[in-house]
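Board notes (copied after class):
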Amino acid sequence: MDISRETVVVVLAVAALAPLLADLPSRVRVPTVVTEILAGILVGPQVLDLAHPDAVLDTLSDFGLAFLFFMAGMEIEPATLRGRSAKLAGAGWLVSLLLGMAFAAALYAGDVIGAPVLVGLALTTTALGALVPILRDAHLTDHPVGRMVLATGAAGEFCPIVALSIILAVASGELWHTLLLVVFALVAVAAGLLTTQLRPARVVRLIDATMHSSGQLALRLALLLLGILVAVAGSLGLDVVLGAFSAGFIVGLITRVDSARDFRVKLDAVGYGFLIPLFFISTGLGFDLDSLIDDPGSMLLVPFFASLFLLARGLPAFLLAHADLPARERTALAFMTASALPLVVAITEIATDDGTLKEDDAAALVGAAMLSLLLFPMVATALVRR
């Protein structure tokens, strides 16, 4: 196993410095997650060459990705999955799917890109996991825009994961894999009902007794549930982030009480203090900057793809929320909803692995997603504050 202690030290140093860099006096407030990605590119092999992806970092990054979706699932309130917000979010994603597939088909017909189905699906994603810390830092979680972002973001995370699983099943010629989605849904629902209904007195007592001791039973049980659902999703051939998202939603249901505040703080510490920054920094380390620099055409695709994110994902959210938010807040909603990254990375990796998408086009698409996550939330928060 190739392990670089220097890489681990550099990455941990970047993780520690990122909040400080994001808090530097500036007219433009850069989100911490964006600082982590940019710093990862800077210290990576294609710029300063101070750190390189290795086996340990890749494993920790996978844990960070799972925890990112776990924390995103925890932020979803049951109210956002029903009523008008849920209908708007679902309808908006379906419109995004139509637009994304239309844009990708046009680009494929013009011989600009390959893998039109996967590229079209990438255009429908929303980086809810990355937006949650941005919303929390900007104190927008309980704002009307923030609540709408959580609803549209849940659709923009969950629906593409399900669609991707179906697409991969169709491509493999094993349509029965789609039935596994139903199996997994039943497992997740059963786990949710079991954990919310069963409260053994001894376990409850131990959770309270170990909350501030070395036992930390509540935290260990949450991590166990995360591991179980991720393992189940992986064994069924589904995307593991689907399991992580479901585990977070279940834990969120159980801990949505004032007495669980300390427990949530501990999860924040594990996730945002350690694992999640490693995922974003590792994303920067692995970003193929040379492909963009060597090909001016690919460099031009970055702002072009970013505009397609805004059109395919942000425009439907803006139009469908006309009766719920004023124009300025709808514009903020559109920019937030169009912010993408984690699923774009996953989708482009699948497309490049099967040879249907060129490396430089994948780099342009990931670069556009990074650009969207850099600029769009900053524009949105500025609009809301104004």
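Comment from the instructor: The longest helix spans residues 144-172. The CA atoms of residues 197 and 254 lie 10 Å apart.
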